[in-house]
Automatic annotation (TrEMBL):
Organism: Lactarius akahatsu
UniProt cofactor(s): heme
One GO MF term attached to the UniProt entry: iron ion binding
Family: Belongs to the cytochrome P450 family.
Cross-referenced InterPro entries: Cyt_P450_sf (IPR036396), Cytochrome_P450_fung (IPR050364)
Source lineage: Eukaryota, Fungi, Dikarya, Basidiomycota, Agaricomycotina
Name listed for the protein in its UniProt record: Uncharacterized protein
Length: 112
């Protein structure tokens, strides 16, 4: 199924074999304990941005947490600058892909 949806470029849908072993090796090296220390500046920046956003508009907690999580993920995985809004094209693109993938993987649903 992963070959139809993502051309086997998604770690979670890659069948067992050489490609999966390469993906796993990169993930282990990139997210090891020593490598995780390089993420501290990103996490500190995002913690400050989250705190400031919560002070400005506390009722929007879910929106702020979504932006916070998206920004950390995109910054660490893709070296992108901080996400300022949920409407960021990168966030919208990831959400669209995940929604499509979730829909297509439901039993009985067809590829569209």
């Amino acid at each position: 199924m992963g070959d139809y949806l993502t051309k086997n470029l998604t770690f979670t849908l890659t069948p067992y074999g050489d490609l999966l072993r390469r993906f796993r090796r990169v993930a282990v090296e990139g997210f090891s304990k020593p490598a995780a220390q390089h993420f501290h500046p990103i996490q500190n920046r995002e913690a400050i941005m989250l705190a400031l956003a919560l002070v400005k508009s506390p009722p929007n907690l879910e929106k702020h947490l979504h932006r916070h999580a998206s920004s950390i993920m995109l910054s660490i995985n893709y070296h992108l600058p901080p996400v300022e809004s949920e409407d960021d094209p990168n966030v919208v693109g990831v959400e669209t892909h995940v929604r499509r993938l979730s829909h297509e993987m439901n039993p009985g649903d067809t590829f569209s």
